From TrEMBL, chain A:
Gene: cysT
InterPro entries: CysT_permease, MetI-like, MetI-like_sf, Sulph_transpt2
Listed GO MF terms: ABC-type sulfate transporter activity
A GO-annotated cellular component: plasma membrane
Known role: Part of the ABC transporter complex CysAWTP (TC 3.A.1.6.1) involved in sulfate/thiosulfate import. Probably responsible for the translocation of the substrate across the membrane. Part of the ABC transporter complex (TC 3.A.1.6.1) involved in sulfate/thiosulfate import.
Protein name: Sulfate transport system permease protein CysT
Subunit note: The complex is composed of two ATP-binding proteins (CysA), two transmembrane proteins (CysT and CysW) and a solute-binding protein (CysP).
Domain ABC transmembrane type-1: from-to ranges: 76-272
From TrEMBL, chain B:
Alphabetical list of InterPro entries matching this protein: MetI-like, MetI-like_sf, Sulph_transpt2
Gene: cysW
Alphabetized UniProt keyword annotations: Membrane, Sulfate transport, Transmembrane, Transmembrane helix, Transport
Gene Ontology CC terms, in alphabetical order: plasma membrane
PROSITE patterns to which the protein is assigned, alphabetical: ABC_TM1
The ABC transmembrane type-1 domain, residue ranges: 54-262
Membrane topology (UniProt): Multi-pass membrane protein
Domain of life: Bacteria
Protein name, as recorded: Sulfate ABC transporter permease subunit CysW
Length: 283, 267
């Protein structure tokens, strides 16, 4: 360790650390951080960097060519468009579900809680099979959306269900009801109370949930395999497009398209971080 | 009261939405799995290749959960209790695996650890360690996708309990290991368990990333989720539904366990 250089500014750092109740790294915890960072780099950082580096080795023109391929553009447009649409539905339905779970009491509410987490725990390939059994060829409802764009929409809707609900629910539970009652007693209508008092308090949580649900939708793969038929130009999403490039041993082009997806997930991470800094609470 | 009808309408919309989107479809998978009695389930349990896939899936998931728990608890302690440069960036990057497409995860691992053209792959294969198309690759892909789950559960709990008790223990002469084992671990126990259960469910069910790195060799690197796809595409729908049912059963069990232990933490 370069103790000589560290010693000089250590008292100042120590004071600052003590102020917010946090310790400086000791030798053991520093070693722990080093090991953790090495593992995190080998597993996540270096591989993700490799994607971007591979995408850029062929130069800008090759990258541009890979992502402006007609079929790729159709896939990206379908993925992003459907994810946006699903996010809008989730913002409305997710807030509504969170509202009912927090403010309403009825028999079987616990069962609903389990249903909401299920899409998160269910393997994506099983999620596809699950949706296929109700909305596929032998549907008891008589609808067959297999191999259509509606199937992509439905799959995204299923896998992104928990995000808005689970981010809004705790915030809603902690809202002070007295403020609402005060507004009501001063003559505000129920709609005004919702718009002026409840909605502003929920907005950061809704935004965080929406960002997560958009990112999850854009990156979805497993639930679509059996459900959407992966028809080029029609129901093929970006992940499927990348996989077919990998299977054709065209890793450069796969990396180029993957870079677009990474840029989207990175943007979402940044947005989430900004929201979280405002709300302070992590989660 | 006047708001009664509105309340019932909302309740009805929510219950109807969840019934059509989740409950009914999941129920149908169970029903289809047992359409011919126990035949489908027995069919997959008697096929040695399928049993191999199930065993491999469980082994990989357990290894992945152990790695993610040790890493997750350790990094959570560092993030909450210590001050170091780049902490906020690290905290943001740790969430990254949740929003990266599983196919991109697979691609990223292939680009670095691929046997022929990867950055480290040829060197590792030179010393006889194959990652891609082999079990280590499957484990890495699984660890990657489930990485943030333990951290996301443990960090809020650590923040909430504060470190007064830890400091007290230390001032009374406990060393770091004793403090962690006697004070910190009991306090964050439920957060850890919750994270472990979620990671286990996620690890057993990983599909896309494993599909890219495993090579999907029957009886060797094929996992349970890959069996579901393979069976379905080969028109063995009974087998596909039966395997899917087993996976769904684990997922449902995980969620129920979590919902039973969670309220103890919250209230």
């Amino acid at each position: 360790m370069t103790s000589a250089t560290l010693v000089t500014d250590r008292p100042a750092l120590k004071r600052r650390a003590a102020q917010d109740g946090r310790r400086l790294l000791t030798r053991v915890s520093g070693l722990g951080l080093g090991v953790a960072m090495l593992w995190f780099s080998l597993l996540v950082l270096i591989p993700l960097t490799a994607v971007v580096v591979t995408a850029s080795t062929g130069g800008w023109s090759q990258f541009w060519q890979a992502i402006t391929n007609e079929q790729t553009i159709a896939a990206i447009r379908l993925t992003v468009g459907t994810a946006l649409l699903v996010t809008i539905v989730n913002v409305v339905m997710g807030t509504l579900i969170a509202w009912v779970l927090v403010r309403d009491r009825f028999f079987g509410k616990r069962a609903l809680e389990v249903l909401i987490d299920l899409p998160f725990a269910l393997p994506t390939i099983v999620a596809g099979l699950v949706l296929l059994s109700l909305y596929g060829h032998n549907s008891p409802l008589g609808v067959d959306i297999a191999n259509t764009r509606a199937a992509v929409f439905l799959a995204f809707l299923f896998v992104t269900l928990p995000f808005v609900v689970r981010t809004v629910q705790p915030v809603l539970a902690e809202l002070d009801k007295e403020v609402e009652e005060a507004a009501m007693s001063l003559g505000a209508s129920r709609f005004t109370v919702f718009r002026r008092i409840i909605l502003p308090a929920l907005t950061p949580a809704i935004a965080a949930g929406a960002a997560l649900s958009f990112a999850r939708g854009v990156s979805e793969y497993g639930s679509l395999v059996l459900l959407s038929g992966n028809l080029p130009m029609r129901t093929e999403v970006t992940s499927v497009r990348i996989l077919s490039s990998i299977e054709n041993d065209n890793l450069d082009s796969a990396a180029a398209v993957a870079t677009i997806l990474l840029a989207i997930s990175f943007a979402v991470i940044v947005i989430l971080d900004v929201i979280q800094r405002r709300v302070v609470r992590r989660g | 009261m006047a708001k009664r009808p509105g309340r019932y309408a909302l309740r009805l919309v929510v219950v109807g939405y969840l019934f059509l989107l989740v409950a009914w479809p999941v129920y149908l998978v169970g029903k289809n799995a047992f359409a011919d009695g126990m035949e489908n389930i027995n069919g997959i349990l008697e096929d040695p290749d399928i049993v191999h896939a199930l065993v491999l899936t469980v082994q990989v998931a357990i290894i992945a959960v152990i790695i993610n728990t040790v890493f997750g608890v350790g990094i959570s302690m560092l993030l909450v209790r210590y001050q170091f440069p780049g902490k906020r960036l690290l905290s943001a990057l740790l969430d990254m695996p949740l929003s990266v497409s599983p196919i991109v995860v697979g691609l990223a691992l292939v680009l670095v650890y691929g046997g022929r053209t990867g950055w480290f792959g040829p060197a590792l294969e030179g010393i006889g360690f194959q990652v891609i198309f082999s079990t280590p690759g499957i484990v890495m892909a699984t660890v990657f996708v489930a990485l943030p789950l333990v951290i996301r559960e443990v960090v809020p709990v650590l923040e909430e309990i504060g470190d007064e008790q830890e400091q007290a223990a230390r001032s009374l002469g406990a060393n770091a290991v004793q403090t962690f084992r006697r004070i910190t671990l009991p306090a964050i126990k439920w957060g850890v368990i919750y994270g472990v259960v979620l990671s286990l469910a996620r690890s057993l069910g990983e599909f896309g990333a494993v599909k890219v790195v495993s090579g999907n060799v029957l009886g060797e690197t094929r996992t349970a989720t890959l069996v579901v796809e393979e069976k379905y595409l080969n028109f063995d729908k009974g087998g596909a539904y039966a395997t899917a049912f087993l996976l769904a059963l684990v997922a449902v069990a995980a969620i129920i366990i979590v919902s039973v232990i969670r309220p103890k933490e919250d209230r």
